[in-house]
Amino acid sequence: MSRLQAEHLYKVFGRRPDDAVRKLENGATRDELRAEGTTAAVIDASFTVDEGQIFVVMGLSGSGKSTLLRMLNGLLEPTAGSVRFDGQDLTTLSPKELRRVRSQKISMVFQHFALFPHRSVLENAAYGLEVQGVPKAERQKRAHEALELAGLKGWEKSWPDELSGGMQQRVGLARALATDADLLLMDESFSALDPLIRRDMQDQLLELQKTLKKTIVFITHDLNEAMRLGDRIAVMRDGRIVQNGSAEDILVRPSNDYVASFIQDVDRTRVLTAGAIMTDVASVLGSKDADGTEISTAEQFRAAAPATVTKDTPLVDLFAPCSASAVPVAVADAAGELIGAVPAQKLLAALGEPEPQAQDAVAAVPAQPAPEDKKPVATDEAAEDAASEDTDGKDADESKVIAGA
Ligand SMILES: Nc1ncnc2c1ncn2[C@@H]1O[C@H](COP(=O)(O)OP(=O)(O)OP(=O)(O)O)[C@@H](O)[C@H]1O
Ligand SMILES: [Mg+2]
């Protein structure tokens, strides 16, 4: 089982980080530490990502997302806490062992996947395998397969600058897939793409994930992207994970005002499903159908209902049937068994903004912060840095790569 487990992870930048962790454990705030000149980038983060799951991390700029991600593959050493993958504690490995794990089991896809401009698409896709020392024939074969998975069959001999931005990003994805790594770390990987291409890449990732069943951690600023991709979503604020749950948990039961204000712009009709808002079939019994006849059995309800849907049907598809009849929409399971009902009032109520669960009054924040406008570069050096994911222990920060031109 390629499960990823982070436990009580801390990352503090600045002098005497261990002291800072002790202070945080004793209740010090991030601001108090900042006054002393240290930055608590990640504070006490714990979570588990199972094989086949996509774990999305969301949060404002500076909330600690990239720092968290880079501790997961050992690019950054945690100040405290542990990261276990495949049963191995990555924080206890020697630099050499860590490099081996990183080149074989973990792949990273950045926002701007800087490709080597003087290498063909095929050679770019094969790069991770080259780092692993895979013989040429074998790595070309696997790169071919990965390109096909990423929808780039036929482009193997092209140069990166002959590809659109979306296609270049696919080469980045193919490079990550070619290595057979079980853990995929994606930092704003689709953020630089046009909305349509971005949606296309999201679909492709979901489609690939059905068969590949990787363990994926995906960082995004985009709520709709988070809701589409995430089996679980963690919301970060000032270094802490303030909520970790399914899209539905976060939409229906935001843990505080911060999360509530974060989600206010999400298109709830496409994220929430009939299963999330349905009531018991029993609640319909005793009501009247369109002709005024009492509905007294489940079968009568089914016959009178304007439509029968599954629990996974998005709310957006319930409006038409709900407006066509006063009888609730019926919900059935895969076997056709009635499992619930969606009355029109429930549907309308679900569109309102939920109250936060806990009384954690915080200032409202802008709902959808714009990601920083980072310009891609594609120098060999930059690509090397990004692609090698730091093969000699120094910090291969993608933002440096991006700013490095
Ligand atoms: N190498 C470093 N040295 C000092 N401080 C750092 C370093 N890297 C990150 N930080 C600080 O840690 C905090 C979290 O940064 P991080 O890059 O993890 O945020 P982020 O959530 O990824 O933001 P963005 O959405 O802008 O990418 C910030 O306050 C940042 O300034
Ligand atoms: Mg970041």
Task: Characterise the protein shown here.
There is one protein chain. The chain is of the alpha/beta class and 405 residues long. Among the domains are: 164 residues, Rossmann fold, CATH 3.40.50; 78 residues, CBS domain Like (Alpha-Beta Complex), CATH 3.90.1280. It is 38% helix and 18% strand. The protein is built from 19 helices and 13 strands. The chain has a 6-stranded mixed beta sheet, with helices on both faces. A 4-stranded antiparallel beta sheet has the order 2-1-4-5, sandwiched between helices. Strands 11-12-13 form a 3-stranded mixed beta sheet. A hairpin with a 2-residue loop joins strand 9 and strand 10. The longest helix is centred in the middle third of the chain and has 18 residues. The chain is globular. The structure holds adenosine-5'-triphosphate (ATP) and magnesium ion (MG). Magnesium ion binds next to helix 3. Keywords: ATP-binding, Nucleotide-binding, Transport. Belongs to the ABC transporter superfamily. InterPro entries: AAA+_ATPase, ABC_osmolyte_uptake_ATP-bind, ABC_transporter-like_ATP-bd, ABC_transporter-like_CS, Gly-betaine_transp_ATP-bd, P-loop_NTPase. GO terms for molecular function: ATP binding. Pfam families: ABC_tran.
